[in-house]
Backbone:
């Protein structure tokens, strides 16, 4: 039994052309065994064997919870390492006014230096699921208040540096996803996370310019009244 190497159609014995696609049949163009080729990884439910699409957490056939199968992932291991670093943080005292306002006299502390180094060196994963999970993790660690008026006026140099590292890696992950599978429907979820966070960030960065414009506007009102009168 032979099959067309172009379309996989079973060939009639002695046929010189494939009845399905018309490709010529010769000694090098037919196989005695049909082959199935998968492009990329094929995910199956470990309980019933159903083929699972990306980002699915519960098997649609048997309702098996897939996340329970693999408790560890690249992104989770990365998050665990960050938590271990955070547990080493020590309270640092500063006696200067700048130190009290910005933390450690405006310098990075050792804990945040380690976190920044780990974030910057983290290699963006290749699978859609892992990139999706990383985008969620990164988005939750980009501290928006550090890019506007701040939280009651207190913004530490270390906090901003860590958030900047997350933002850079967040944008890097999005670029990789857009290059790797922008045409896939699964990309829409990643794009939605990215667009929302960037929109919030741009709005936050406008707070200081808008405040300055407001102050200048209020300051100019008396002069305008004098001119009018």
Residues:
């Amino acid at each position: 039994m032979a099959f067309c190497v172009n379309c996989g159609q079973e060939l009639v014995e002695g046929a010189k052309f494939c009845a399905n696609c018309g490709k010529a049949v010769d000694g090098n163009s037919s196989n005695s065994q049909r082959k199935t080729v998968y492009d990329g990884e094929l995910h199956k439910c470990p309980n019933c064997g159903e083929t699972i699409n990306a980002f699915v957490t519960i098997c649609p056939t048997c309702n098996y919870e897939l996340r329970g199968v693999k408790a560890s992932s690249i992104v989770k291991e990365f998050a665990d390492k960050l938590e271990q670093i955070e547990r080493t943080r020590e309270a640092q005292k500063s006696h200067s006014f700048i130190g009290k306002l910005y933390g450690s006299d405006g310098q990075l502390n050792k804990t945040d230096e380690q976190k920044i180094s780990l974030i910057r060196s983290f290699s963006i994963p290749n699978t859609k699921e892992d990139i999706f999970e990383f985008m969620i993790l990164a988005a939750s660690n980009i501290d928006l208040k550090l890019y506007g008026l701040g939280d009651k006026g207190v913004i530490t140099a270390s906090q901003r540096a860590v958030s900047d590292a997350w933002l850079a890696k967040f944008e890097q992950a999005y670029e990789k996803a857009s290059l790797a599978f922008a045409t896939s429907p699964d990309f829409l979820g990643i794009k939605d996370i990215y667009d929302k966070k960037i929109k919030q960030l741009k709005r936050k960065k406008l707070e200081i310019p808008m405040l300055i414009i407001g102050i200048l506007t209020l300051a100019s009102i008396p002069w305008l009244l004098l001119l009018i009168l």
